[in-house]
Structure formats: structure tokens, C-alpha cells
Specification:
The complex is a heterodimer. By secondary structure, chain A is an alpha+beta fold. Chain A has helices at 33-43, 76-92, 102-110, 122-130, 177-187, 219-230, 240-247, 264-273, 300-304, 307-336, 344-354, 361-381, 387-404, 410-425, 430-447, 449-465; strands at residues 50-58, 62-70, 116-119, 134-138, 144-147, 193-200, 206-213, 259-261, 276-280, 286-289, 467-468, 471-472. In chain A, the strands form 3 sheets. In chain A, strands 1-2-4-5-3 form a 5-stranded antiparallel sheet, with helices on both faces. Chain A has a 5-stranded antiparallel sheet with strand order 6-7-9-10-8, sandwiched between helices. A two-stranded antiparallel sheet of chain A has the order 11-12. The relative contact order of chain A is 0.09. In chain B, a hairpin with a 2-residue loop joins strand 13 and strand 14 (280-298). Chain B is globular. Classes of the chains: A alpha+beta, B alpha/beta. The A-B interface holds A 335-340, 344, 347-357, 360-361, 445-446, 448-450, 453-454, 457, 461 and B 13, 16-17, 20-21, 23, 25-33, 35, 37, 39, 58, 60-61, 63-64, 107, 109-110, 112, 137, 139, 165, 168.
Chain lengths: 524, 392
């Protein structure tokens, strides 16, 4: 029962502490600026981008303040305008600095910037400097002010390349974590949209954020996600893809049990269904869990368009999925085993196209598919500017020359082409299909249709056994959840989708009704 | 409880995985390029008493180039089919022996027609067809025809411009009987069924030479106890088909006041029965109900009154009755062979009598009186009431 939600563990109820610091041992901030300076210089030795400036002012007593930050990481204009300028004003104004401690005054009314936190020890201070904040150390204080003047670097919000839709928002996520969260906040204006931060990766200390809608998302799932994230022990989190591999239920399965998306509206939809999103700083791909099989054939357009078309397209996608898995295998099985089921006229065509081909159908199919996969991979990896050349070479070599040279049959080229087109229809499963296709080919070559059906049964059994965060992967078909069928192959209009996916709340077992959308009142 | 359930599910799964093993099919892996696609089959008896198997094998590449080049027709194109014969004691041995003159193994599932020779038919066909029943590669839906006045090899060798594969051409001709009703179309499976049918003799469509490179399919061969007894011409064949409810559509010419009228039969229902009195058969009855349209009136009369149409209906009925009568009489007197299947009715509804007299049924059939009722109705006279002509 690995992967199921663990009941009764109190781990899920803990909050994730945001200060998961580099230094495990507590190191107080030294009392004097001189010591602070010395310590920081020691920590950041060899880091030429580390910058600090000491401001000292003597009137009645000596006031020394140290500003420390990483050059280029903070917005210097904002730092000067919001912090340095008012600070100097404050210092030069003799009357004001008499009353009370400077630290409190700086915090409460001198610094203009609103994003002020406190660092209580040296570890926190260093972490915050590394995260792009500016730190103010004040002589004689054991705390430091953290001023959020991080420069929002990175590219502009743009249309995602990997997920294209006809209708709907063209905004895609970017590499900046906070911009991404804002993109979601813009769509779900609701305090129940919870955003919890955690730092992952011993070396990278990447900001990772769990996002869900309280009251809609299943609490048990949320705590399970937190629990799994906490268990990740690794040096580096460079992309959500790494997180995905750590947290998925069946790490050896070909099929994805964690979804990802670049599209803001898609993610908002998933959150509203009760799913949980995992953002990671530095990547535009956001994970969604639980991820079920049916999601791979759903697109955002399905919900924006009329339900008839959505249903048709979904069935078409399913057919494409099956075709892209089975077509080459079917062909091989037909021409090497089951001649009797081929209609007479097709048989003549088949035999004519096979005439003079030196390879067996299996070898021919494998060669052509490998050639296609090579082309595809080359198309992904190489610089865009020479893409044109590749497609010409691919079309000529694969399509024309191999046929006229008598190495491949016309029909094989057609079959590989259809297979390729079909495989692109269901992008989340491209990689799974790519490997399964070969498996089916081998099965077809040894046992014909019998082999194909055996492997298909095996794949189905595997699919039915898969779980994503404890939720059966093939839901709502297995287990049959009648209420959730409304958003499966049959897509009912959005006004008729009254209940949220019941399976996500794991209430199907008890037979209770899913929550109605209207029932959840937002607590203000 | 849970474990028990799991175990049960496992058993069920294993059961379902074993099931497909019971499915039949070809086990050996053979590429399409390693087989010879047989489209036509011929069987004949040689003078020595051996079986002469003739196959028509298609050359897919030639077909492909012929169809893609279309009407260009230049140069020497490879022949789309070749015909080979092999003589042997048994059919299966001939099939294998054929490999001494043909390069690749023969593949029979694609066979479209089976032509039986006249001499073979006279000797009896049931024995040689045994191989066709047993072999798993034989397609039971191929057409069977008996060659009259020619040999199967001659039929299969006839090159034809209409279809690059002669066997397909022959099959299409046989299929056309749906619009003609002048040849009995016999599928192999039907032949097998009739072979096992009590009180019914075999009847197979006929094929003969019609001209240079053409074959004609009209009429049928009548068998008695598996041996060829004789032939029916196209009119008699139509009569037979009317009686056995096999007519889909046909054209019947009837005389009118002036000229002739071609009637198109659009629907026909035939029913045969044997009347029993005192548990003895006394009469054979044939009832045919049909609907017809006037397709053409090649004469000067008018067809505008209901009476004239009723009169036509009668003439039409008489004409069809005559055809049925011709067929029945020939079968009763000349061949003494019940291909209609009157005996089947007797066997089915009067089993006591059949037990007693079943063996002599053909003799009894031959001497029973016949009652034929044809109910013809004319539905339409085409899209005009009267053809265009000058007023008189």
C-alpha cells in the first residue's frame, strides 16, 4: 500500500517552517558591526558579487549601520529610494533619533519599503542575502532587518510553447516563482487560495511552494503532499521534473502520475477541481497532483467550447492514443500472421507494397520508427535556425528515398506517419507511447494479435493498479465513479457540471455525495 | 476477506488470460511476400482418374502497376496473374505437389471462385470437396461454379480487360445474378450445407465460354446424389429461383397486345410445400408472390387503365408459372432430382413418413402432381403514364 495516504500520522498537520536554513546550528548575530562585517566577509569570501556598505553617523553617539546584499540581485534604485535615502534623512534629523532605539524606529517608520522581515540569527541573515534581499545590521542589535528589494528578474509573461490552445488565456508561467503565484491569484481572488513555501535542495535551497484551495482540496492530500516534499533529500532541485520523480507513487511506471502545466488558466482550473499545485522557483512548469489518466485527454479548450465538440475531440484523442500505440504492431501482426482477416483487395495492395522489401515487416517497422524518433529528437535538440534543413532531409530520406530504394514499403511510411501524428495528439503520454509502441511491436512479431492482446491486457492491469497520491489512476472508470463520468470521454456542458470531482475527495468509498460547487462558502 | 477477494480476482484474471489461447488462428509467422495469393481454383478429373488442380495466382506488383498506370498501356507489362495446374491422386497432395512448379506456398483464403470441371462433376464432387471443408485456410464464402463445355483451366486462363484479375471478374458476374436471376449463385458454405441437408439435392451455377476471352454465367448444374445429372437453361433456372425464393430482381418479358412489355420484378417471395393426405404426400405446391414495375413497353398499346394493368398482372403470373413448371417438369421427369428441397419439408414436418420413404424420395418427388400459384402485382409503370408520341 505504498503511496496511499497515511492515516493517523500527525506529520501532515505541521506547518512547513519557511526557515529551513543552511546552518543547522544557531549562530547569533554579533553585537558589533565590526564583528558582523568580519563574519560576513568570512562567509562570503570569494563571492565578488557580495556587497556591503557601512553607514556611520556621529552626533550624540556613534550610530553604525551595515547594508549588505548581493550585487545585481536587488533593485538598487528601490534600495536607495526606500532605504538609504530615508535612513540618511533620519540620521541627519537630530530630534528624531533621540527618542527610543534606532532599530524599532527604522523598522516602524523610517524604511519606506513595506516588505520588512527580521532575521534573528546569522543563518537566516545569510539565507536572505542569498535570496536577493537587502539586510540592515544595526550596531548593538542581535537582530537584522530584511528588506525585500529583490529585483524581479527573468523574462516577461509569454505564451507557453508546449501547450497551445485555441481559446483561453495566452499567459504562461515564467521562471519567477512569485510572478507565477500572482498569475494564479489574479484568477482566483480568494483568501482560501493557500500558498505554502518550503525550501528544498541542500545546495540549491530552491523555493518550492504548495498551492491549493482550502475547503476544496482534500486536507489529507495536502498533508500527504507536504509530507512527501519534506522527505526529499537531495542536493539540487533545478526543475519540477526532479520533484515529480521524488514524489510520484509509482516511480518505475511509464505513465505519469504527476501532471505538469505551463498554462495559468489550466492550473487555476485544476486547483478549483481540488487538485494541489507545486510551484518551483526557476521553472515555468508547475506540477499538479493527483494526476489521473483521464486528464491526459482533457484540454482547456474542452471547457471553453461546446460540449459536443469536446466530447468528439476527447474520443478522437483516445482513438489517437490507441492508434499510436497499436498501429505498427497491428500492421506487423496482419502481414505476418493473420492474412486470413485481410480483405481481398487490401491484401493485393499490401502484398504489392511489400514486394521486393528485403526486411521482415517487424524489422522494417522498427527501422522506420527509430528513424522517426531520431528526427523528432533532432528537431527538439538542434538550434531552431537549421530546423528547416532537418525537415527537408527527414521528408526526403524517410518518405521518398527509402521507398524508391526499396528499403521500406509505401504503406509502412504511411503507417509511421499516422502513428506519429496520433502520438502528438496526446502530449502528456508521448513518452509512454513511444516505448509501449516498441513493446507492442515485439509482442506482435512473436505472437500476432494474441501477443498484442496479452500486452494490452497487461498494460490495462497496470493502469488500473496505478495510483496518484492514493487516488486510483483510472478513475472515474475504475473504480467506477458515476458522478465523475460527466467530465470523462463524455464532456457535459460546464453548466451541467454541478459537482466537483468526487474521486479527489475520496468520498466515493463511503457513497456520500460530492460537494456542490455552490455549497462551499468562502469565509471572508 | 480482502485477501480472499484478491485471490479470486487473480484467478479470474488468469482465466481470462488463458481464454485467448483457445482462439484459432495461424500460428506460423509468414510474411506476405512469402506467399502466393490464390484467387481462383479449378478442379477437374483427368482421364486417368486423378485430380487436376488448377490455381490462378495473382502478381500483386503487376496489379499495382497496371492500376496506377491506367490506360497508358505502353510496353510489355507483366501479366497480373498466372495459372498453373498439377495432377495428383488427392487434392491436398496436388496442393503440396504444386510447389514443385510454383515458387512460394499457396495461400487459399483469398480464393474468389472454385470452378468444378464437368467430368469431375459427373464422377461426384462430394469426395473432392472434403479437403475444402477440413482446411482452415479455405474461405467458405468463395463462389462455386460448374464449367459446361469447357475445362476449369480454360476458364481460369481467360484474360480479360474488364478486371485485371479474371477470378474477380467471374465472381462479379456471379454476383450480378442479384439483378438477373438467371444463374444460381452458390457459395461454398451453402454447398456444404446442402450436402448435409436431408431431402435436397445439390445445384450449382453454371459457367461456360461466351466468346473470345469472355465467360458467361447462365443456367445451372443439377446434381443427383453428388453426381452431375444435367443442366437447366436460364429460363428454367429463373423458375427454380422464383420457387426457392432466391430472386432479388430480374426482367421478365411478356407479350402485350402489340409488341412486348419488359417487367422488372422488384420483390418476390417464393414458398414451397408438400401437401399430405392420410400421411401420404399427394401434391407439391409452389406459391410465389411478387411485385413488378413496368420497365418498358415496346409496342403501341396504352397502359392507363387499371383493367389493362390487371390483365398484365395475369399474363405476368402465367409467364412465371410456366418457367417454374418447366424447371419442375425437367427435374421430375428427366433428372429425378429434388433440388428444390421439397424433401427437406417432408423431413422436417413429417418425420414418420420420411423414415419410411426418405430413401426413395426422389422417385416419389418425380411422380407427385404439382400446383403452382403465382400472385403478381404491378406497382408502377415508370415515371410516365404514356410515352411521348404524336396525337393521332
Amino acid at each position: 500500500m505504498r503511496g496511499r495516504i497515511r492515516r493517523g500520522s500527525n506529520a501532515g498537520n505541521e506547518n512547513i517552517s519557511p526557515d529551513n536554513t543552511h546552518s543547522n546550528s544557531y549562530e547569533p548575530i554579533p553585537g558589533t558591526i565590526k564583528a558582523v562585517k568580519a563574519r560576513l566577509s568570512e562567509i562570503f569570501s570569494g563571492c565578488s558579487d557580495f556587497t556591503h556598505r557601512e553607514i556611520s553617523y556621529r552626533k550624540n553617539s556613534l550610530i553604525r549601520i551595515l547594508v549588505a546584499y548581493i550585487n545585481g540581485f536587488v533593485d538598487k534604485r528601490a534600495l536607495n529610494q526606500d532605504v538609504i535615502h530615508p535612513l540618511l534623512d533620519f540620521l541627519s534629523n537630530a530630534e528624531s533619533n533621540e527618542s527610543g532605539r534606532i532599530y524599532e524606529q527604522l523598522k516602524e517608520w523610517v524604511v519606506i519599503n513595506n516588505d520588512i522581515k527580521e532575521a534573528n540569527d546569522m543563518g537566516q541573515a545569510v539565507d536572505n542575502i542569498l535570496s536577493g534581499e537587502a539586510l540592515l545590521f544595526i550596531d548593538g542589535e542581535s537582530k537584522a532587518l530584511v528588506i525585500g528589494v529583490k529585483d524581479p528578474q527573468g523574462r516577461q509573461v509569454a505564451e507557453p510553447d508546449t501547450e497551445v490552445s485555441i481559446r483561453g488565456s495566452r499567459e504562461g508561467f515564467v521562471e519567477n516563482l512569485f510572478s507565477n503565484i500572482i498569475l494564479i491569484r489574479k484568477r482566483i481572488k480568494n483568501p482560501n487560495l493557500k500558498v505554502e513555501m518550503i525550501k528544498l535542495g541542500e545546495q540549491t535551497m530552491t523555493d518550492v511552494c504548495i498551492c491549493y484551495i482550502k475547503e476544496i482540496a482534500n486536507e489529507k492530500l495536502v498533508s500527504e503532499v507536504k509530507e512527501r516534499l519534506k522527505r526529499i533529500k537531495t542536493d539540487a532541485i533545478l526543475d519540477t521534473g526532479i520533484i515529480e520523480q521524488y514524489i510520484s507513487d509509482s516511480r518505475l511506471s511509464l505513465f505519469p502520475t504527476v501532471g505538469n502545466s505551463e498554462k495559468c488558466d489550466k492550473l487555476a482550473g485544476k486547483l478549483l477541481e481540488g487538485r494541489i499545485a507545486i510551484f518551483c522557483d526557476g521553472t515555468p512548469y508547475v506540477l499538479t497532483v493527483p494526476y489521473l489518466f483521464i486528464e491526459s485527454i482533457q484540454t482547456t479548450d474542452d471547457y471553453y467550447d461546446h460540449a459536443y465538440f469536446a466530447t468528439f475531440m476527447r474520443i478522437l484523442r483516445l482513438v489517437a492514443l490507441i492508434v499510436s500505440n497499436l498501429l505498427p504492431a497491428m500492421y506487423v501482426a496482419l502481414v505476418s500472421f493473420h492474412h486470413t482477416v485481410i480483405p481481398f483487395k487490401l491484401m493485393i495492395t499490401l502484398a504489392a507494397s511489400r514486394q521486393g522489401i528485403p526486411f521482415s515487416p517487424f524489422v522494417e517497422a522498427v527501422l522506420m520508427i527509430v528513424a522517426f524518433e531520431l528526427l523528432r529528437e533532432a528537431g527538439v535538440r538542434m538550434p531552431r535556425s537549421i530546423g528547416q534543413a532537418l525537415s527537408i532531409v527527414g521528408a526526403i530520406v524517410l518518405g521518398e528515398a527509402s521507398v524508391s530504394a526499396g528499403i521500406a514499403s509505401n504503406l509502412m511510411v504511411i503507417i509511421v506517419a499516422i502513428t506519429a501524428i496520433c502520438s502528438f495528439v496526446v502530449p502528456p503520454l508521448i513518452r509512454a507511447t513511444m516505448l509501449l509502441r516498441f513493446a507492442f511491436l515485439v509482442a506482435a512479431n512473436f505472437l500476432g494479435f494474441l501477443g498484442i492482446s496479452y500486452l494490452a491486457v497487461a498494460v490495462l492491469i497496470h493502469l488500473c493498479g496505478l495510483r496518484s497520491f492514493g487516488i486510483p489512476y483510472m478513475a472515474p472508470f475504475s473504480p467506477l465513479t458515476a458522478a465523475d463520468l460527466k467530465d470523462s470521454f463524455l464532456a457535459v456542458p460546464v453548466w451541467a457540471m454541478v459537482t466537483r470531482p468526487r474521486i479527489l475527495r475520496q468520498e466515493y468509498a463511503k457513497g456520500s455525495k460530492g460537494t456542490k460547487r455552490q455549497e462551499v462558502k468562502i469565509k471572508q | 476477506m480482502c485477501r480472499k477477494l484478491k485471490k479470486q480476482t487473480g484467478m479470474v484474471l488468469i482465466f481470462f488470460l488463458i481464454l485467448p489461447l483457445l482462439l484459432t488462428g495461424c500460428w506460423n509467422n509468414r510474411d506476405l511476400t512469402e506467399i502466393n495469393i490464390v484467387v481462383g481454383l479449378g478442379l477437374e478429373r483427368t482421364e486417368k482418374g486423378n485430380v487436376l488442380l488448377t490455381v490462378q495466382v495473382v502478381e500483386p506488383a503487376a496489379i499495382q502497376s497496371a492500376s496506377s498506370e491506367g490506360g497508358k498501356g505502353g510496353g510489355s507489362q507483366p501479366k497480373p496473374v498466372f495459372v498453373k495446374s498439377y495432377e495428383s491422386e488427392t487434392v491436398f497432395d496436388a496442393v503440396r505437389g504444386m510447389l514443385s512448379i510454383v515458387d512460394k506456398k499457396l495461400f487459399f483464403s483469398t480464393a474468389q471462385v472454385l470452378i468444378l470441371g464437368e467430368r469431375l462433376s459427373q464422377d461426384g464432387i462430394e469426395e473432392v470437396l472434403d479437403f475444402f471443408q477440413r482446411d482452415q485456410e479455405i474461405d467458405y464464402t468463395m463462389d462455386v461454379l460448374v464449367a459446361k463445355g469447357t475445362t476449369p483451366r480454360e476458364v481460369l486462363e481467360m484474360g480479360n480487360d474488364m478486371d485485371s484479375i479474371p477470378a474477380v471478374y467471374i465472381r462479379e458476374l456471379a454476383k450480378n445474378t442479384a439483378w438477373r436471376g438467371t444463374v444460381k449463385r452458390t457459395l461454398l458454405i451453402e454447398l456444404f450445407k446442402d450436402m448435409g441437408c436431408n431431402g435436397k439435392q445439390l445445384a450449382i451455377g453454371q459457367i461456360s465460354k461466351a466468346g473470345d476471352g469472355e465467360v458467361g454465367t447462365e443456367g445451372m448444374a443439377v446434381f443427383k446424389d453428388g453426381k452431375l445429372a444435367g443442366w437447366l437453361n436460364s429460363y428454367e433456372t429463373r423458375g427454380y429461383l422464383f420457387a426457392t425464393d432466391e430472386v432479388k430482381s430480374t426482367i421478365v418479358n411478356i407479350p402485350a397486345d402489340t409488341g412486348k412489355i419488359a417487367m422488372e420484378i422488384i420483390r418476390s417471395k417464393g414458398k414451397i410445400d408438400v401437401v399430405f393426405e392420410n400421411s401420404e404426400p399427394v401434391m407439391l405446391t409452389v406459391k410465389v408472390k411478387l411485385e413488378a414495375n413496368v420497365g418498358g413497353y415496346e409496342g403501341r398499346g396504352r397502359l392507363d387503365s387499371a383493367d389493362s394493368l390487371h390483365a398484365l398482372e395475369k399474363v405476368l403470373g402465367e409467364k412465371i408459372k410456366k418457367e417454374i413448371m418447366m424447371a419442375l417438369q425437367k427435374l421430375q421427369t428427366e433428372y429425378s432430382s429434388d433440388i428444390f428441397g421439397f424433401g427437406t419439408y417432408v423431413h422436417k414436418y413429417h418425420p414418420q413418413y420420411w423414415k419410411k420413404a426418405g430413401k426413395n424420395w426422389d422417385a416419389i418427388f418425380s411422380r407427385l402432381p404439382v400446383d403452382i400459384q403465382v400472385d403478381a402485382r404491378i406497382m408502377r409503370t415508370g415515371i410516365v403514364k404514356d410515352p411521348i408520341k404524336k396525337e393521332e
